[in-house]
Design goal:
single chain, 480 residues, alpha/beta, Spore Coat Polysaccharide Biosynthesis Protein SpsA, Chain A, UDP N-Acetylglucosamine Acyltransferase, domain 1, TATA-Binding Protein, 3 domains, six-stranded mixed beta sheet, 9 helices, globular, disordered C terminus
């Protein structure tokens, strides 16, 4: 039996973490999630696996290779255009030669699939949906079936008043090749929205089988946090298979770590290989630190996930955050409640704070921030949200200064970007067009002691230059 891993999506629900890292390579306990998918398929006896790819495809191929490091054989099918969860299967006709298993690359599970496979053959099903019981099923597709397991009704993400079952679609399917005849090759086609309704309409042998065991979709920030909390719990048993050493109850460290004797850690905590922790630093519960990270002295971390190569400078306070690979958090930073940082960007900040958990999605709706704009401004945030390009990487720079210096500092900022600044009205939001389609928005009077600049990331250099000219009278606050 062969397997298919669907790994072509952009991972928009996890943006901006997935702007530079494809979702299949997002780490779970310092292991890319696609590694967990491949290992699970192998544990079910599947050793030939096809991976459908699109977004940041070469990164996935480079990481997974030919599959020899996993003990399986991998082949790749690139989707020139995203074809939906089921549409990409059409390209696999030559690969598929019998019953096959499909799994999404954002699913982590510990199911034993053998009972479902036996049911699939005994019921003569052409497509079996693997389901599991969920107490709050409204965020998933739900299934109702008859006594023989044949699906009678399927509804994707129903509103509360239409929930008729607690059996949810896990995104794991056992499929016969005949199903490919019902999947078009010229347009996107989804399992839930298109294929299942079509099969039900035609009274096709569509069945479901419920399994018990651990399952989670890690495609959202809150579930991404949850899978780490679960994995740090002893019931998942991950530590048996890994090369970590437990130095105290619930505290696991990888090889070649350097931990100062005055560093305090309260489990459950996982520290990746080659990481360094400074003196008087406190690592609180539910924290996972990646490989080769550096956390300097007098820092506090709790309920955090740090990817590889993160550097946190001294006297920083970080709670309930995900920090992506190679980010540098400068001295004295405070990051709380899912302020997300991504890419090889340096965060120059004294204070970075998000009052409520909030992620920024650049692909679906554009970036959103708290409405701090000056009422009536031509470029208020409500209007700005419709102007910022969906695929832009945006830097938000807050410049703190005394009110009486605002006009001078805005003038310095403008003069550093434009040769001529005659007749510029700095009492309203200003939009400056720069070369190479770059742009900047300035809000000088939205708050009593702040100027806020929304700009392309590289333009932070301009703000730094302005800060230098005004010497110690201002402080720059930057987020992404």
């Amino acid at each position: 039996m062969k397997g298919v891993i669907l790994a072509g999506g952009k991972g928009s629900r996890m943006s901006p973490l997935t702007l530079l890292t494809p979702k299949p390579l997002v780490p779970i306990m310092n292991i890319p999630v696609i590694d967990l998918c491949i290992s699970w398929l192998k544990s079910q006896g599947v050793t030939e696996i096809a991976i459908t790819i699109h977004h940041l495809a070469t990164k996935i191929q480079k990481h997974c290779g030919d599959g020899s490091k996993y003990g399986v054989k991998l082949v790749y099918f690139y989707e020139t255009n995203p074809m939906g969860t089921a549409g990409g299967l059409q390209a696999l006709k030559e690969f598929i030669d019998g019953t096959f298993i499909v799994i999404s690359s954002d699913v982590v599970n510990q199911f034993d699939l053998q009972k479902a496979i036996t049911f699939h053959f005994e019921s003569r099903s052409d497509l079996t949906i693997v389901t599991t019981k969920m107490s709050h099923p409204e965020h998933y597709g739900i299934v109702i079936k008859d006594k023989k397991g044949k699906v009678r009704c399927f509804l994707e993400k129903p509103p509360q008043h239409l929930i008729f079952s607690d059996q949810i679609n896990t995104g794991i399917y056992i499929i016969e090749p005949a199903i490919l005849n019902y999947i078009p090759s010229d347009r996107p086609f989804d399992f839930s929205h298109d294929l299942f309704p079509l099969l039900l309409q035609k009274n096709f042998p569509l069945y479901s089988f419920s399994l018990e065991g651990y399952w989670i979709d890690i495609g959202q920030i809150h579930t991404y946090h949850q899978v780490h909390r679960d994995s740090l719990s002893s019931f998942l048993g991950w530590e048996i298979k890994r090369g970590y050493k437990q130095i105290k109850k619930g505290v696991w460290i990888g090889p070649n770590c350097e931990i100062d004797p005055l560093c305090s850690m309260e489990g459950p905590v996982l520290i990746g290989e080659g990481s360094k922790l400074g003196s008087n630093t406190i690592i609180g519960a539910n924290t996972v630190i990646g490989n080769n990270c550096v956390i300097e002295s007098d820092c506090f971390l709790e309920d955090c996930i740090l990817w590889d190569g993160v550097q946190i400078k001294k006297d920083s306070h970080i709670v309930n955050c995900v920090i992506a690979s190679f980010v540098v958090v400068e001295e004295g930073a405070s990051m709380v409640d899912n302020m997300l940082v991504f890419g090889k960007k340096e965060i120059q900040s004294k204070l970075i704070r998000s009052v409520t958990p909030q992620s920024v999605d650049f692909f679906e709706s554009g970036p959103t921030y708290e409405h701090e704009d000056h009422p009536g401004s031509e470029y208020s945030m409500e209007k700005l949200e419709t102007k910022i390009p969906f695929d832009a990487i945006v830097t938000v720079t807050k410049i703190h200064c005394p009110s009486n210096l605002k006009s001078k500092m805005v003038r310095i900022l403008i003069e550093s970007m434009l040769e001529n600044t005659k007749d510029i009205n700095i009492k309203e939001g200003i939009k400056l067009h720069l070369s190479d389609n770059r742009w900047v928005y300035i809000f000088p009077f939205e708050m009593e002691d702040y100027i806020t600049i929304y700009t392309h990331a590289e333009s932070i250099e301009v703000a730094r230059a302005m800060a230098y000219e005004c010497r110690n009278q201002i402080t720059i606050y930057q987020g992404v």
